[in-house]
Structure formats: C-alpha cells, structure tokens
Design brief:
- The protein contains 4 helices and 44 strands.
- With 690 residues, it is mainly beta.
- β22 and β23 form a beta hairpin.
Length: 690
C-alpha cells in the first residue's frame, strides 16, 4: 500500500510538474483555450519529451477529457492517463493516445506510448502503432526511435489501390523522407518485391525490384527484374527501368522503360518467334521454310545465344543453328553455326589515344550470303569533332588505314589477295532551326590489290535537309558516288558501285476533328545512274499514301488509299518498277472486324483488277480461350469473269487468360507469306470486352 501511495504521489507530482512547465509560456495560451500550450525545449527533464517531426496531415481527434502536451518545435501528445516510474526513468501515456507533428503532417495512434530514458529524452516505444501519412496508412508491430529516426518494425501499409508489407519502415524526422526495407507490394493486377523503397506522395519508388502479374498461388511463371521501379497508384501501373524478363530459364532484356498495367506491354518480346522463308522467285535463292527461332537468350551480361530450327515443313530440309554473341569492353565476337553455314568472327578494339583506335578483325563466314568470306584485318581509326562553328554547326572528321588478307568464293571461283587501303570522311551538320537542319558528308576511300595490280577508288558526296513545320515533316536526300569498281571481290566485301540518287519524303498527320485523324505521305526517288536494274534510270518511286481513322460511338472506320506512279513516269516498264492503285476500307464493331480492298494495276494491258478482297474476323470465346479467326477471299477473277474466287489468306488470333495475365498469339498467311506475333497483356483480371 505504501508503494502504491508513493506511485500515485509521484504520478501526481509528474502531472503537476508538466502542467507547471506548460504554464511557463502559457500566458497567451490561457487566454485562448482552443490553442495548445507550449513547452520550452530548455525546460527540466520532466518537461522533455521525444523530439518528433512529422510526415502526414491528419490531426488527432480531440477526445473529451483528454490531456494535451506540446513540446515546442517537436510534437503534440493527446492522452487520457499518465503512469510514471522514477526509478526506471520512464513514463507511459495510455488511453487513446495520439501524437502528431507540429506541422500536423503526420499522426500516430496507439493505446499507449512508453518513454524510456526520459531524462535524456532519447527513446520512445509504441506497441501496435497506426501511422497516418499523406496518401498512406501504416500499421506496425512496434515503433521505436533512433536519434532523428522513427523506426517501425513489421509494417503493413495501404494506399489507393495498393497495399503491402515492409520489414522496416523508417521516417527521417528532419528531412521527412520515408524509407522501407524488404518490401512486398500487392496491387489489383501485380505483385512486386524490392530490397528498398521510398514513399513519395501517392507513388512508391522501388530499388532492385522484381515484379509479376501472376496473382494466383504458387510460383509465378515469369518475373521482371528492374534496377528501379515506380508504382503510380493513381493509374494502377508499375513503371520499370532497365528491366529484364525472366521466363523459362531465359533472361530477355526489355526496353529502357516498360509499364505493367491493364493494357498489353508491346515493348516485351517473347523468347521465340515463328517465321517462314520461301524461295525467292526473283533471285532464285532457296528459302528455309517454316522455322522456330529464339532471337536472343541472354546467358550473361556479355553473352547472348541465338538458336532455332528451320525446315519444319516437308518442302525444305530440316536444319538447326546456334550462334553465341559475346560483347564486352573493346570486344565483339560471334561463334557457331548460322542458317547457312559456320560463322566465327572476332573484333577487338583498343584505344591508343583519345582520338586514335586500333582494330583487329578476324572473320570466318562460311556463308553464301557473304560469298564465303574469310579474312583478317588490322586497322587504325582516327576521329575528331570540331568545336561549335559559326551558327552552332559541328564538323566531324575521321580517317583510317588498314591491311587485310581476304578470300571469297563466288561464281565457282575463289578470289584471294592482300588489301591495303585508306579512307577519310568529313561530316558537317547544322543545328536545327526554323529553316530545318542540313547535313553534308564527304567520303573518300582507296584500296590496292597487289596480286591483281588494281586500285579501287571511290568518292561519295551525300547531303540531306530535314524540316518539321507542324504538322508536316519534310526530308530531301541527294547522293553521288564516283568509282571505278576495280575490286576483284564482290559487293559483299568491298566492291563499290557508281550511284547517283535523289529522294524525298513529305508527310502530314493531324487530328481533323475530335473523332477523325488523317495522314498523307508522299515518297519519291529518282535514279540518275542505276547499276542493278539493267541500267535503267529515272523515277523508280513515286508513291502517295493517305489514311483516315474515324472513331464513332461504337465503331471504327479506317479507309486507306495508295497510289504508285513510278511505272507510269518511267518508260522502262521493268517488273521492278510498279504502277498501281490500292484502296481499302476496314471497319471494327466491337470484336468484329471486316473490310474490302482492291488493287488496280496501271501497267497491265488487260485484267487490271488484280485483287478484290473480302476480309472478315470475328470472335469465338471458349473459356479460358478467346479466338478470333481471319479469312480473306479474292473475288477479282470471279468479278472479271476470268476464273473463280480463291482463298488469299487466313489467320487466327488467340488469347489465353491465366492468373498471370493474358497470353496473345497470332498468325496470318497472306499471299504465301507468314506473319506471326506474340505478346502478353499483363493484368490480374482480364479486361472486359465490348
């Protein structure tokens, strides 16, 4: 009983002492009952309470009968009761305790607050606290202080459409920064783990993040790693930088920044693709048929494996290929078997000076595409960039010297010789201006072939002008090359060809009405000196393309017109130079898509209507699959009375909905050409279809 009486007396003394300290600066406060009383930071140890600077904006509710304590520049405390232990130098506030920063930008609610080492005013513990921050609510097992930090252990937090856990949440009471360690976040359609994170308004910034949209139980079928990520709660998306897709044991680099949300991620490419390469009727080169290709499996930061199998159909021989690409500082290498032969290549670059590099190149390309090239090269490269010239223009100059031993096999003969050469280039580029941007490039090269007693020279002068007066874009290019074409090797190595070409493009794109967009593109080219089309010169491209896109309340219309007049403007009438008129109208209503298209050949003397298409795609839904078949029928022969209609193309789009999102795959066979695509719509719940 005596001990209880002493405790009550000590509690009463503590309470009265605090009230006395409050009255030290309370002359003005006593005249305003709505204003909390102020405690000086220089008061006695009984007046010292933990220094806290806050982070949220909710105020503590004023409970009838609650006591209020304010420490100047620190925090306000609201509580029902006080319990003290002078021997332990501790105090405890209990009974609907609430504390908030002086700026009222954070709030902590708890049943009790325990002050440790009260005379030093350094330690504070709160069990089961609830912390309110701007845009966020946080619960924790324990809140403790560490100098100027609030440290919350085993926390759960909630934001708009986002919730998660963190092993530790830390609040810097000076800077207001909120950090989280070992974070796991749950969103409506994703899961994210991270080593560290920062709360920034409604967003969560993560470091060393790992994300997935597999929201079902069990291991996720894929992961995306990123150096940094941002969860933007307002648009329900994750923005990942420098991401890598981990799936089926493969590491696939992604774009510099990708998004995970309720829409498809077009930046992510699958680890494989289907292809079809038929025989080329113009060159006579044989194709490889149907193939399954893995364009790149990143085995390491510097190792990428390309592999595939071709000839899966009966018309072509079955072949497999695999190439290993190695990229490192000053090194590029390739080893393995390509589609048509053995390939090994090593390029080593060493910097001798800021402006000078030495390059060693070894190539063993047993491939008909490069005429079975084998060679070793050593080269010196020099380059420099001038300071800014008059008007802000810049000039870049480069030069090289090389010696090579090369061999090629073509036309049933083998050519081998030493090559000694030199070259130089000067590039002058203006700064962008209202008049556009100009660029001029001059290249000079010469190569000596001692065994053949020949020297090949070449001088190329090219210039371009680009301008972007909204909503137009204009580009004009001119190229002229003088050469004697004296190389005994093929163009796949170094044989130059005379060239003289003028080309240009004018494009326009704009929104005409809130529902209508339009575009117009004109592309033209004039060949003054052709060497690859029976010496035919003149206009070889003059094409106009116009498109419209109209979005109605429930439908979309997309008309397109294309006119090629090169064959009319050029009198050569070769097969390479075309002249035609194309028209197409495609409409979309919900998941139904159909259209008509025609091609009118301007050079055909008879039967100029070469194509009259009827196209249709429609939905078929069988959970968990969503299918959209496609057919295209050419009725031109039937229309003109020269034959019957025939199937020009067919295809299928398929969507397979899983707990990780929706896998999308499609193929389309048009005019004996195969087009395939694969993608992923990362969403926890499949998007509703109209």
């Amino acid at each position: 009983m005596r001990h209880l009486n002493q405790t009550l007396l000590w509690s009463r003394a503590f309470y009265l002492s605090v009230r006395q300290c409050l009255n030290l600066k309370a002359t003005e406060a006593r005249s305003d009952r709505g204003r909390p009383q102020v405690l000086s930071a220089n008061s006695t140890w009984m007046c010292s309470v933990l220094s806290i600077v806050g982070m949220a904006m909710a105020q503590c509710p004023i409970v009838p009968g609650a006591s209020e304590l304010e420490v100047a520049g620190l925090a306000r405390f609201y509580y029902q009761n006080i319990r003290t232990d002078r021997a332990a130098d501790e105090a405890e506030l209990y009974g609907q305790v609430c504390l908030t920063g002086i700026e009222q930008n954070w709030t902590v609610r708890a049943e009790r607050v325990r002050f440790l080492d009260l005379s030093l005013a350094q330690r504070l513990e709160i069990e089961q606290p609830h912390l309110t921050l701007p845009e966020w609510e946080v619960d924790a097992r324990m809140l403790r202080t560490d100098e100027n930090l609030l440290v919350l252990d085993e926390t759960t937090f909630r934001g708009t459409g986002v919730s998660g856990t963190a092993l530790v949440l830390t609040v810097d009471v000076n800077s207001g920064e909120v950090l989280l360690d070992e974070v796991f976040v749950r969103g409506p359609s994703y899961r994210v783990g991270a080593a560290r994170a920062t709360l920034s308004g409604p967003s969560l910034l993560l470091e060393q993040a790992v994300a997935t949209t597999c929201v079902c139980d069990g291991p996720p079928s894929y992961l995306i790693e990123g150096t940094r990520a941002e969860i933007a709660a307002e648009d329900r998306r994750i923005h990942i930088r420098e991401g890598v897709l981990l799936v089926a044991g493969s590491r696939i680099p992604l774009a510099e920044e990708v998004e995970i949300g309720s829409e498809a991620l077009e930046e992510i490419e699958p680890p494989f693709e289907l292809e079809y390469r038929g025989n080329d009727p113009e060159t006579g080169k044989g194709g490889t048929g149907l193939g399954l290709v893995v364009p790149g499996i990143r085995l390491d930061d510097e190792l990428v494996l390309q592999a595939g199998v071709t000839g899966l159909d009966r018309d072509f021989p079955l072949k497999a290929f695999a190439l290993l690409d190695i990229t490192g500082p000053g090194l590029q290498a390739e080893f393995g078997r390509g589609r048509d032969g053995i390939r090994s290549s090593v390029v080593v670059r060493q910097r001798l000076a800021k402006w000078l590099d030495t390059v060693f190149r070894f190539q063993n390309l047993h491939d008909p595409d490069v005429d079975f090239l084998h060679q070793g090269v050593i080269e010196l490269e020099a380059s420099t960039t001038s300071p800014v010239l008059m008007g802000g223009a810049r000039a870049t100059a480069s030069a090289n010297l090389f010696a090579a031993a090369s061999s090629q096999t073509f036309s049933s003969a083998t050519v081998a010789d030493v090559r000694l050469g030199a070259g130089g280039s000067v590039r002058l580029r203006s700064v962008p201006s209202p008049l556009g941007q100009f660029e001029v490039v001059a290249d000079l090269e010469a190569t000596r072939y001692p065994s053949f007693e020949e020297t090949q020279y070449g001088f190329t002068l090219s210039s371009s002008w680009t301008s972007h007066p909204e909503p137009f874009q204009i580009t004009v290019r001119h190229l002229k090359r003088w050469t004697n074409s004296a190389s005994p090797f093929s163009v796949e190595l170094d044989r130059l060809q005379a060239d003289h070409r003028l080309s240009g493009q004018v494009s326009w794109s704009d929104r005409l009405t809130p529902r209508l967009r339009g575009s117009l593109v004109l592309v033209s080219a004039y060949d003054f000196e052709s060497t690859d089309m029976d010496d035919v010169t003149g206009v070889d491209r003059f094409r106009v393309t116009s498109t419209l896109h109209y979005e109605g309340p429930r439908f979309v219309l997309e008309p397109k017109l294309e006119l090629e007049l090169a064959g009319v403007l050029n009198s050569s009438r070769t097969e390479e130079i075309e002249a035609f008129f194309d028209a197409e109208l495609v409409g979309t209503l919900g998941n139904y898509r159909g259209g008509v298209g025609l091609r009118y050949d301007l050079l055909e003397p008879e039967d100029r209507l070469t194509r009259l298409d009827l196209q249709l795609s429609f939905p078929l839904e069988v959970e968990p699959l969503f299918l959209r078949p496609f057919v295209a029928v050419n009725v031109a022969p039937f229309w003109t009375g020269t034959g019957g209609a025939f199937l020009r193309g067919h295809g299928l789009e398929a969507e397979w909905r899983t707990c990780c999102g929706t896998l999308i795959g499609s193929y389309r066979w048009i005019d004996a050409e195969l087009q395939t695509s694969f993608g992923v719509r990362f969403e926890g719940v499949p998007a509703e279809r109209e």
